[in-house]
Amino acid sequence: MSVVSTATLALPCGGADAILCSTTGGRGLVEGEGWWDGVRSAASVLGTAPQDTTPHRAAPQYSQQRARRALSSAILGPALHPRPPKQQPPVVKSSPTPPANTLGPLRSPPQREMEVVPYGKNFRLVPEDELPELLDYLSQHLPQSLKFQQTLKTFLTDRVWDFHFYVTKDWPQDPVVLHFPGITHPPNGLLYESFSVFCPNDRLDALQLLQTEDMLIDWTRPLYLNFTPKIIFEWLQEFYTHIGSIETVEGDVYISVQDPPPLQETELPPEVELRQLCKEDAKAIHDLYPARDMECLEAFEKCIDTLPAYGIFAKDAADVEDAEKRPAAWMVQSYYGAMFSMQTLPEFRRKGYGIFLAKRLTAAVKKRGYVPFVVIRPENAASQSLYLKLGFEKLYQTVRAVLKPRPIRIVLDIEFTNSKQSDSERNKGLDVLGELKDAWAELIRDNFGQLPLKVEFHTRVDVILRKDLSAVLIITSCNNLWRLYNNSEDSNSLLYLAITEEGCPRLPAKEGITVPIVTRGQEVAQIISDLRAAEEISWPSLLVIFDAWLDADQMKQIFKAISEAQPKVRFVSPQMQMLDLGYFSSYDMVRQTIAEFPNLSSIEHFLVITGRENIFIVMKIAKSLRLVNPSTQWLYVLPETQYYSLTNDSRLISLLHEGDNVAFLINATRHSSETNSCSEGGILCYSRELLRALVASLASYAATEQITLKRVATDEWEEEKLSVSERRKILLKHITAGIAKQLGETCDGCMAWKMRSAITWGLKGPTGPSGDEEASMIESGIWRPGTGVDLYNPLFTHIKHGFRGKQLTIVSCHAPPWHEIQFDDQGQVVKYSGFIFDIVDELSSRLNFSYKVVFPANTVKGFVAEGREPTLDDAVADERSPIWDNMIDLVQQNHVFMAATAMSMSAGRESRVRFTLAVASQPHTFLVAKPRQMSRTLLFLSPFTGKTWLAIFGSTLLVGPALYFIHKASPATELGRGLRPKNVGPNKGGLNRIMNCIWYMYGALMQQGAVQLPTADSGRLVFGIWWIFVMVIVTSYCGNLVAFLTFPRMNPAVTTLGGLLKLRGTMTWGLMRGSELEKLLEDSSVPEFNYLLNKAERHAVVDDALLERVAYDRHVLLERRSRLLILQSLQLKKSGYCSFALATDDFLPEQIGLAMPIQSPYTNLVNKEIRRMQQAGLIDSWFRHAMPRRDRCWVTPQSLATEVNSHSVNLDDMQGSFIVLGIGLVAAFLAAILERCFRCLSIMKARGIIEPFVN
């Protein structure tokens, strides 16, 4: 059975208006039905349903009979009978309105111990004798008024607490009812901080009276809104959102519409019992109550003493300690008729105690004449299921809320304020604090009417800026300002408006607005400080060049603005050097002064403060000393008070050159004689304007939020509403736009400085040979004291935006894999790719330019002829075309930004163009024929060397005769003793013949046995030793033979340049005519390289004939390794097998770089970006990706010599064995013929001899 746990927030019996039932163990929550549907469902039964045609989801319906039984018989109770609905509500007797001087305006609610206030601004306290009629009126608006009606009925019947009910002064025309329970702990312990409100759904317009009620309800303080119908809360939310934040808890009202199942005492286990709670139990219940911080113990004691309250106790609880006397589960009726605080101790859960208590208390509440109802969180499915089983049904939704205003604080440093007043303000004797209070009241009245926006005024600067503040206006010195900022509780959401002294770093622009009080003519230091805060001049070091325009005090301020560290700025203070030019005497003197400054060439950032005419002199000198380039930044400050336009000054434009980074700060302040709209205000002027902009932005934001509230549902508001930081961003944007012009004309005295930037990058080359562009100037921004730096473009636009998207012209060609140009079928370029274009693409991204690729003509130096589209022939760079020289010419003549080619950085080319850092190093090597296997005819002889075979053959010839003599000499043999059997002739067979012994040794070597063995131990010993010898020889032979079958023997490989030169008589070599290798060899003084060049053949083109020579004619091709790898890959694709190999020896590496004009100022800039790419590993990655992929031809001759070829033994491997077999058979056949011939000769010879006849 589901019981109530303490896992979620439960509501107090006094001020929390409803029970918050939660699942046991904190299970998942589900959303309930819409509250409006429940209202319509119940109210339609009574005939009082409000007329609203808005479509809603259907709520659970229950029968008219059950509704009337619940809402007619039980709600009013036995003493108060229901009456039929009336067209007009009953009139409650009105007490006479007290005179104006009786109470007076109440700005702060009274404390709890003070007298109850009988009158508010729009409401009056309902006397006790009028409460029954008020109950009558609330009964007519059931079920929307259920909570309010039951509360009043409980008050009249049981008097749990001294409640306070208020109605409007013109009741019932404006039917709004307030209830102040006074039983809870409100946020600040004040009586009127906790309240609930009721108003009929068709008269919500009357709630406007709450907005102006500032006597009973102080909207500038935190408030506790007890559970209130959601439709009323939505109106309050729309009204309150621009005052502060709202924390809500929603609940569904479930009402008992049928009697619960009969209660059986047997439902409880025998070891526990049900008891009525007493005051002694209140302490244990209160200690475990989740919301005990809002409820006092006395509230529980009164509820338990007056209303039904039950607990389940162990029967032997009287015998245990006091700590164990608390109930296992309990449930108490609240003062408004609902059941609340159902709790079960964790160790007693899932025993059915909860539903047992709910049945018991439901029956008791009904018996007392009340309607049992509960408020359940929409996501609490377990509690919903429990009460549905008990006959409860959902009516509508209600909301409880904590209203927390976000006040605005004004911190006013009186001493600082008095010191910064303008002369006119000081002469008038104005009180800044009083003026600000009056200005605030006027602004609120004009923008919000009676809306109670709270403002706090402080004259001490040691306050803490709380995180609940909405905005703060600080008027104090720089040190105090930053101390307040750093000590604030939450600077991430607070909106700052500050007025401080000149030279003070502004607060972060994303968090607020800072206005320094700047004196006319002393603006330079503040401008520099603001530029540093905006990170426009984030220089690690700089040289300040100034003349007599600046006095000592101004230089001291500028030095402070530059050198002091700024809070919230990520760049450290720069190292500053200063050069005083004094009064200009002559060009030569000034040039010498600047040129003699130590370490001038290492300085990259310059700040020049001088008059307009002197600027031209300094710019000429800087250019002549080569101090102006893309790596340096020059900021010129013109402090002359009369505005001077530099936009179209031809003298100035003529001093701007390609690649300069130059910006200007120009004093654009207008004199009072030039305009009547400028007035120099003081600190009060700035304060009023900032407050005006703040209130206007709050009003605009409030209007926007109200539109959003009307568009979305309440439960969607938490997702739709902006965060605090987003709110601050919108307010800040609105304030900045509002004060930009207003401050300039009313308070800044029309002080303004304009900023201009020179546009100089990409002037030469991008448009081709048609001509050069001129430098120009653009407006970068403006500075005013009130708003600070307002930039339209970066001050040094080329530093941040590079070439500003300009299209530059580069020259390239088709030379894979370095740079590839793909054409479609119509001959149009569709793609540029390759290693070099990877680098160019990254450069274009980093330096912010696009590029156009042009091709040099094959036949004519320069671009492709005008009027003719470039073709593939124009783009392909073969060895016979003059493309490479043509590209060098284009770069040298400054027609292109760079040559995007893999160009070798040779000495001859470096005299014509300027190369970037090397992007790759490409060595040279040579291509040779792939080593082939040696003949395998005599493979069977390979396991042993020739000497080994001779030794084995000799051993066989020697051991055979040795065996014969040992056998013959042994006394154990008959032959050895010289005896012969009488009946046997001489024994000439077996081991008694030398040839037999030799053949035996051979047979044993072939692992063949013998028929006859020696009889003597000496002969046997020879046999045994020979067999061991044979075993070792045969085993070694077999193992080596397998190895030779697996690892074939290769022809000698040429792997190094030295090895090639050693074969000079048997091999030839060649290289490409006009190649870089030929030039490198010509310039080399190494004898080996000179010999290599002298004996080398010059090839005009790489064709099939040349490759055929390399493959089969012992010829070698010397070239770049990358090109040879491509040749290998192409040959593999063409033939399907590998015919070539590369040498392991690399020599004469070429450095590959991008070619730029010698006079180009961007080479160092490009080198800087290339160095970054190298450090990031991008260039290595692109190079590996562009080079040919590793394939089965990616081997060297040396590795081929050890290549393992696992294969089955074929005829090539065994051909030597068959040849030996054939030779043996032929030899045997010849031997047989010879034997036959000898036999015939012997017979013929024997026939010619006459032998005597022997009988």
From TrEMBL:
GO molecular function, one term: ligand-gated monoatomic ion channel activity
Primary location group: membrane
Residues the UniProt record annotates as site (Crucial to convey clamshell closure to channel opening): 1054
Keywords tagged on the record: Cell membrane, Disulfide bond, Glycoprotein, Ion channel, Ion transport, Ligand-gated ion channel, Membrane, Receptor, Transmembrane, Transmembrane helix, Transport
Residue ranges, annotated region (Disordered): 47-113
Subcellular location: Cell membrane
Cited InterPro entries: Acyl_CoA_acyltransferase, GCN5-like_dom, Glu/Gly-bd, GNAT_dom, Insect_Ionotropic_Sensory_Rcpt, Iono_Glu_rcpt_met, Iontro_rcpt_C
The N-acetyltransferase domain, residue ranges: 272-409
Disulphide bridges: 1138-1193
Coiled-coil blocks: none
GO biological process: one example: detection of stimulus involved in sensory perception
Domain of life: Eukaryota
Annotated membrane topology: Multi-pass membrane protein
GO cellular component: plasma membrane
Cited PROSITE patterns: GNAT
Xref: PANTHER family: IONOTROPIC RECEPTOR 20A-RELATED, IONOTROPIC RECEPTOR 60A
Protein name according to UniProt: N-acetyltransferase domain-containing protein
